[in-house]
Amino acid sequence: MARYRDNLPLPGDAVVLTDGGIETSLIYDQGIDLPDFAAFTLLDDEGGRHALERYFDDYLAVAVSGGVGIVLETPTWRASPDWAARQGITIDHLAELNRAAVDLLAAARSRWETATTPVVISGCIGPRGDGYQAGEQMTAEEARSYHSLQVRTFAATEADLVTAITMTYSAEATGVALAAQRAGLPVVISFTVETDGRLPSGESLDEAIAAVDEATGAHPLYYMLNCAHPSHFATVLDPAAPWTQRLGGLRANASRLSHAELDVATELDAGDPDELAREYAELRRQHPQLRVLGGCCGTNHVHVDAIARACASA
Length: 314
What we know:
The chain is α/β, with parallel strands linked by helices. About 45% of the residues lie in helices and about 15% in strands.
């Protein structure tokens, strides 16, 4: 049974952590090959599961040390039908792996959760296409149909909510939100932006958030930004704008590189954890509603620990 689905412990004035760039951490920190960035395939064997446990334990240790809550995302960003087919995984087995991902985090929660560190489990949903480009776009109804399998699977597990990560256009985000709404699940939508602060589709953040809210009756709990450096979006966030108040979290890159540059990079750009942490603290000062804080490509628990400490002292 989901522990927090109806009572998410996400107070508006307190920092809640989330994890960082799981795929880049597994590849560069643990030396694991991940075709298509499909971390969910590691759930198929004991060694892979242990690698995932090590990854999440690092973040849980940071949260417990700081006495703050944490939202853990299942390693299922690529665990949807099209990406599974590329790995030769059947639909039935795909559903099993999505369930196994939640079970992995439920076991971690039982090991680590304390009175001051609630552990929230989020079913992670990634884009149907590339995470850096909008590419061929679906209608909202097509996106709802495509993502429903994963959403329905999470609804029958201990997942407290689902989070759509690296959404590149509003129609797909709307589809995920509609699927979650029909399944009775809370949902968070996280958009990615280019260096000009716009989605890869060309939509502005305010246009994308307004489109999803209008189509779903504002069903998302809040919105996030991920897979972009703070310098790519800080100037477009207007503290006085109502749409900005819908933003509740950040999973930024430590790297200042654009998506195009990251796509062809042959080495990891991990940036400077302390510099990234200072930028988070400044964003929190201007936008205190940004409370769920983690990282994306190139970040690991060291970055999130620095972010937690900087924002706590601020």
